[in-house]
Design a protein that fits this description.
The chain is α+β, with helices and mostly antiparallel strands and 589 residues long. It is 30% helix and 23% strand. It is built from 17 helices and 22 strands. The protein has an eight-stranded mixed sheet, sandwiched between helices. This is Aspartate--tRNA(Asp/Asn) ligase. L-aspartate binds at residues 173, 219, 449, 489. Keywords: Aminoacyl-tRNA synthetase, ATP-binding, Cytoplasm, Ligase, Nucleotide-binding, Protein biosynthesis.
């Protein structure tokens, strides 16, 4: 039906006769001449209809926004003074010779060239209209190209694309499963996979050596800007590898897609231990574009009379830390109060601060309600440790280490955003040397990643000191977002037994949840490891989208619903009877 896409015409097409198909993006009548901006997925081109051709002119005069039309005409240079440098096709226009209306359109529910005042629910209800907008199409087109690029890269690296089941069984992976009742197995349920973790390990046992897939995963959890109940994961696993091998392949893939898709080349990507990331940035996914750092000052505060500081400073599980904001003395009291409320979200009971007006005057040059509780030597040591200068503002956190890290880590990011402190466009980082376990308030151990992550010690050393054991795990972070993570897996039965024992997973529970994997490990499992990237999050970062929903064609809302299809929905009693399920109505008191 067409000879060219609208957006691909250039001055090199001058004097060519072309046939275009697309949507009328905009119609203008300028003194008896009709201008149509015709749009397809490749962009816009201006089509002009003169009144000399009465039939086609009248047809062009009748079309409205979002009509679907077919146009044949001659490409010509735009007259002097009318070139649009903001448009790739802005040097030319098409003189329309024939126009055919392929389909009329109702008035759109919102203007496609100005949607800023449109609620997200309306955009999602009419998603097929929202997706016509050039900025939305460009995001999904880039997503497709990145998908193609990473497949080519992994193919070149010897990886095989192998699909794993969608209908499987529930496994403990930290979130609720989506369950699917079985009609043929009364009272039993499938679970939709939270990840292909166990199956990709089985593929290594099976000898496929290098596996990948772009996998759909499902988690029934509370949503946020970078989460969806169903999401896409770049999943890979390889045999006879160590951390360096896996990280090398993954890093090469990220470098390849950034260079080929955005023209961005990364320098050396630093490696940072988990403990250092938490100490300096309060997060295991620090945004290194922000130059602010958290500094521990517990030793300086251990003997002060201010119990808010001395208590956590002398608590083995506590921490007192400071965050220096250069030129932060310009912040108003209202801004400081707002930041105090903000850190309260993360459990902080307050946000102490000191304004450094004159660092040479330790008596009168420091402005804060807490200065009077700090001896002069402590003030001096504090300013020296932080490298404070006149005009700076110092925020403090004092509580359990976890609360201090969460609160000051989030405050650091918030200040970076509010004060535009970014020093680079991209800041990738590998976080390594994660703890093997985390401990709850009852002293029980939990796997920081999952129970198949290999520790960096022997089974005997693991049993002797599990609280200090490190894992062979690694995460790739970009601009404060965890792109993905993975680990070397346990392939030795004695090590797996030690981990299960420390996690207090009984033999019966092991068999119930992981029996098929444990059986496979008995038949010559190779050393193996892998990694998974959140594909949606990666595209969100690369396109500069504010939400993960903007890079998924048909996403769910914050309440995990689809307003387009009205899913989830009720089903018939007949379907429920086939599944031997009765719906119990909830009672609202």
């Amino acid at each position: 039906m067409r000879t060219h896409y609208c957006g691909e015409l250039r001055s090199s097409n001058n004097e060519e006769t072309v046939t275009l198909c697309g949507w009328v993006h905009r119609r203008r009548d300028h003194g008896g001449v009709i201008f149509l901006d015709l749009r397809d997925r490749e962009g816009l081109v201006q089509v002009v209809f003169d009144p000399d051709d009465e039939v086609n002119f009248n047809t062009a005069d009748r079309v409205r926004s979002e009509y679907v039309v077919k146009v044949t005409g001659r490409v010509r240079a735009r007259p002097d003074g009318t070139v649009n440098k903001d448009l790739p096709t802005g040097e030319i226009e098409v003189l329309g010779k024939q126009i055919e209306v392929l389909n009329a359109a109702e008035t759109p529910p919102f203007p496609l060239d100005s949607h800023s005042g449109v609620g997200e629910d309306v955009r999602l209800k009419y998603r097929y209209m929202d997706l016509r907008r050039p900025e939305m199409q460009s995001k999904l087109i880039l997503r497709s190209r990145i998908s193609t690029a990473l497949r080519r890269y992994l193919d070149d690296q010897g990886f095989l694309e192998i699909e794993t089941p969608i209908l499987t069984r529930a496994t403990p992976e930290g979130a609720r499963d989506y369950l699917v009742p079985s009609r043929t197995h009364d009272g039993k349920f499938f679970a939709l996979p939270q990840s292909p973790q166990l199956f990709k390990q089985l593929l290594m046992v099976a000898g496929f050596d290098r596996y990948y897939q772009i996998a759909k995963c499902f988690r029934d959890e509370d949503l946020r800007a970078d989460r969806q109940p169903e999401f896409t994961q770049i999943d890979m696993e390889a045999s006879f590898v160590d951390e360096k091998d896996v990280m090398g392949v993954a890093e090469g893939m990220v470098r390849h897609i950034f260079k080929s898709s955005l023209g961005v080349e990364f320098g050396d990507i630093p490696h940072m231990p988990f403990s250092e990331a938490m100490e300096r940035y309060g997060s295991d996914k620090p945004d290194l574009r922000i130059p602010l750092e958290i500094v521990t000052v517990s030793d300086l505060m251990a003997e002060v009379e201010f119990k808010v500081f001395s208590g956590p400073a002398t608590d083995p599980k506590g921490r007192v830390a400071a965050l220096r904001v250069p030129n932060g003395g310009e912040l108003t009291r209202k801004q400081i109060d707002d930041y105090t409320k903000y850190v309260g979200i993360f459990g902080a009971k307050g946000l102490a601060y000191i304004k450094v007006n004159d660092k040479s005057d330790l008596e009168e040059g420091l402005q804060s309600p807490i200065v009077k509780f700090l001896p002069v030597p402590v003030r001096q040591a504090l300013l020296e440790r932080l490298g404070a200068e006149n005009g700076d503002l110092i925020f403090f956190g004092a509580d359990k280490a976890r609360i201090v890290n969460d609160a000051l880590g989030a405050l650091r990011v918030k200040l970076g955003e509010d004060l535009n402190l970014y020093t680079a466009e991209w800041a990738p980082l590998w976080v390594v040397d994660f703890p093997m376990f985390e401990q709850d308030d009852d002293g029980r151990l939990h796997a920081l990643h999952h129970p198949f992550t290999a520790p960096s010690c022997s089974p005997e050393e693991l049993r002797a000191a599990p609280e200090t054991a490190l894992s062979r795990a690694y995460d790739l972070v970009l601009n404060g977002t965890e792109l993905g993570g993975g680990s070397i897996r346990i392939h030795d039965q004695s090590m797996q037994a030690a981990v299960f024992d420390l996690l207090d997973i009984s033999p019966e529970e092991q068999r119930e949840k992981f029996g098929f994997l444990l059986d496979a490990l008995q038949y010559g499992a190779p050393p193996h490891g892998g990694l998974a990237f959140g594909f949606d999050r990666l595209i969100m970062l690369m396109t500069g989208a504010e939400s993960i929903r903007d890079v998924i064609a048909f996403p769910k809302t914050q309440s995990a619903a689809c307003v387009l299809t009205q899913a989830p929905g009720e089903v018939s009693n007949e379907q429920l009877r086939e599944l031997n399920i009765r719906v119990r109505k909830s009672v609202t008191e």
